[in-house]
Design a protein that fits this description.
There is one protein chain. With about 400 residues, the protein is an alpha/beta fold. It has 2 domains: about 180 residues, 3-Layer(aba) Sandwich (Rossmann fold); about 220 residues, Rossmann fold (3-Layer(aba) Sandwich). It is about 35% helix and about 25% strand. The strands form 5 sheets. It has an 8-stranded mixed sheet with strand order 13-12-9-14-17-18-19-20, with helices on both faces. It has a 5-stranded parallel sheet with strand order 2-1-3-4-6, sandwiched between helices.
């Protein structure tokens, strides 16, 4: 049998390599979105199996589900205890979408359908079960619903916080569910650690519509915040104008100017155990910002006096000598030797625990793209590691290195 899912496996990455995931699809109209999620997980390397309830098949066909995972669909259990052998082999069971009816039955051990029978077996095996609730918002506030959720959590089940839109808990984007899946599956080296992250550029205004800024997209900082969440951290993200929407369950504050970012960081500094300065705040700002738009017809030349903005990460070190700080250093068109040298100088001058240097002049590294080439240097100026990879994977590697160093403190 030809498996049409093979050709897309690993096209987004290998975060789920070797993982077997059972998707239980229940009777919500949003069941039609299940193939999108399944394909997304396959693209990250997972081996996905799908078990639809009879009610789910009112909204999605077996053919569509089968196509999405290369035929690995179980449409019914026979008399051979299939629910036991199927669930026993899984790394994670994802009930997506999860209706209020299915959640209530799962909480009280009612196994009157193939879907609830599989959930019942999974909880009995102590498997990780992740529920993605989908229902009208008022149902979420029903005391009975809250009771069954608390009951299931006491059994070890995991609930993704509902994505509320138009007074409904809707089916979240696959990327958000993917983040919760990784959080369920990955080890937690940052468990209970308070991680403060900055991301993206800042803007300094010449007049109400003209500004000085840079090309930073904020992707590196957003990925670091999301990976810290996956690895068990309690995360706060402070960011400028960015191109990537962060996972909404992460606390965040949006700022515009370097001064605003400075104030937010200083306000959160006492809270933090780790501060990761991945932002690219503007170094200079106009000495004066015009209150009205400058009329270009009246000003053929425009002279600007620029003054330095606050050095946020340096001030963070001055205020918190004990804080574990990771600083990013952007360089332009330098050799690898110079990259390490500059990173080492940066780390030792300010006393940062780790400096991550990258060359934003390299077309495969730096601003506005998904890949990066970085040199990671410790507080003594020694090279820890060179990494050339996606920003998503680099973010995780930086956090693993940080967690190892923190464990040695």
């Amino acid at each position: 049998m030809i498996d049409p899912s093979k050709e897309i496996r690993y096209t987004y990455g290998d975060d789920l390599r070797g993982k077997k995931i059972l998707m239980i699809v229940t009777g919500s109209v949003s069941a039609y979105k299940a193939p999108d999620l399944a394909r997304y997980l396959v693209r990250h390397g997972a081996e996905v199996y799908i078990l639809p309830s009879k009610e789910a098949l009112k909204y999605i066909t077996l053919d569509s589900l089968s196509w999405s995972v290369g035929g690995r669909v179980i449409d019914r259990f026979g008399y051979e205890a299939g629910h036991i052998y199927l669930v026993k082999d899984m790394d994670l069971i994802v009930v997506s979408p999860a209706t209020a009816n299915t959640i209530a039955k799962a909480a009280y051990g009612i196994a009157d359908t193939d879907a609830t029978l599989a959930i019942h077996s999974a909880l009995g095996f102590g498997k990780k079960v992740l529920f993605i609730p989908v229902m009208h918002e008022n149902m979420l506030h029903n005391p009975a619903y809250k009771e069954v959720v608390d009951r299931l959590r006491s059994y070890g089940a995991i609930f993704m916080e509902p994505f509320i839109e138009e007074e409904k808990a809707k089916f979240p984007p696959p990327r958000w569910i993917f983040i919760e899946i990784l959080r369920a599956l990955y080890p937690k080296p940052l468990k209970d650690m308070r991680v403060l992250v900055t991301a993206g550029p800042t803007r300094e205004y010449i007049d109400p519509i003209r500004m000085i800024t840079n090309r930073s997209s904020g992707k590196m900082g957003v990925y670091i915040a999301e990976q810290a969440y996956i690895l068990g951290g309690n995360v706060r993200l402070i960011h400028g104008p960015i191109t990537l929407e962060p996972y909404p369950r992460i606390w965040r504050r949006r700022v515009e100017t370097t001064e605003e970012m400075y104030e937010e960081v200083m306000n959160n500094l006492k809270w933090a155990d780790i501060y990761i300065s991945a932002a690219a705040p503007v170094d200079y700002k106009p000495n004066k910002t015009e209150e009205r738009k400058i009329d270009s017809r009246l000003n053929r030349y425009l002279d600007l006096e620029l003054i330095l903005t606050p050095k946020i990460v340096a001030e963070a070190r001055r205020r918190r000598k004990d804080l574990f700080i990771i600083s990013f250093k952007a360089l332009y068109n330098v050799s690898r030797e110079e990259m390490v040298e500059k990173a080492a100088e940066h780390s030792m001058r300010y006393g940062f625990n780790i400096t991550v240097a990258n060359d934003v002049g390299d077309p495969s590294s730096g601003f506005e793209i998904d890949t990066n080439i970085v040199a990671i240097v410790d507080s003594e100026g020694k090279l820890i590691k060179w990494i050339s990879d996606s920003k998503w994977r680099i973010a995780r590697e930086i956090l693993y290195i940080a967690s190892e160093k923190l464990s040695l403190h």
